[in-house]
C-alpha cells in the first residue's frame, strides 16, 4: 500500500511540475529558470506545511514523498545552475542560487509554522 501511495503522489506531482514548467517557459521564456524556481519554492512551502501539521504517515507518503518528490526537482536546479555558469551568466547563477536557497528555506519555515497552527 505504501508503494502505491508514493507512486500515485509522484505521478500527479510530475504532471504538475511539467505543467507549471511549461507555462513558465511560455510566459517568461528561457532568460531565467523561473519554472524550476517557482516549483521548488512552492514545494518547499507545501512540504513545510505538511510536516508542520504533523499529518498521518499515509499523507506523508502520498503528499510528501510522492507528490512533492515528483513535483520538486533538485537535479534540474543543479543542471540549470551549470548551464548558467557555462553560458557565462555568473550573476544570474548567483541570483538563482541565493534566491532558491534563501526563499526556499524561508518558505519551508513559513509552511512549517502555518501547518502547525
From TrEMBL:
Keywords attached to this entry: Cell membrane, Ion channel, Ion transport, Membrane, Metal-binding, Sodium, Transmembrane, Transmembrane helix, Transport
Regulation: Na(+) is not transported, but it plays an essential structural role and its presence is essential for fluoride channel function.
Membrane topology summary: Multi-pass membrane protein
Function (record text): Fluoride-specific ion channel. Important for reducing fluoride concentration in the cell, thus reducing its toxicity.
A Pfam family this chain is assigned to: CRCB
Protein name: Fluoride-specific ion channel FluC
Catalytic activity: fluoride(in) = fluoride(out)
Compartment(s): Cell membrane
Family: Belongs to the fluoride channel Fluc/FEX (TC 1.A.43) family.
Transmembrane segments: 6-24, 31-53, 59-82, 94-114
NCBIfam families, per the entry: crcB (TIGR00494), PRK14205.1 (NF010801)
Residues where Na(+) binds: 69, 72
Amino acid at each position: 500500500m505504501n508503494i502505491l501511495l508514493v507512486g500515485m503522489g509522484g505521478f500527479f506531482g510530475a504532471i504538475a511540475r511539467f505543467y507549471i514548467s511549461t507555462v513558465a517557459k511560455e510566459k517568461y521564456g528561457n532568460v531565467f529558470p523561473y519554472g524550476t524556481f517557482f516549483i521548488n519554492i512552492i514545494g518547499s512551502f507545501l512540504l513545510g506545511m505538511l510536516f508542520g501539521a504533523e499529518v498521518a504517515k499515509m499523507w506523508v507518503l502520498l503528499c510528501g514523498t510522492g507528490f512533492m518528490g515528483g513535483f520538486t526537482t533538485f537535479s534540474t536546479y543543479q543542471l540549470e545552475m551549470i548551464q548558467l555558469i557555462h553560458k557565462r551568466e555568473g550573476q544570474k547563477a548567483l541570483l538563482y542560487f541565493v534566491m532558491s536557497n534563501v526563499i526556499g528555506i524561508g518558505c519551508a519555515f513559513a509552511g512549517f509554522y502555518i501547518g502547525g497552527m
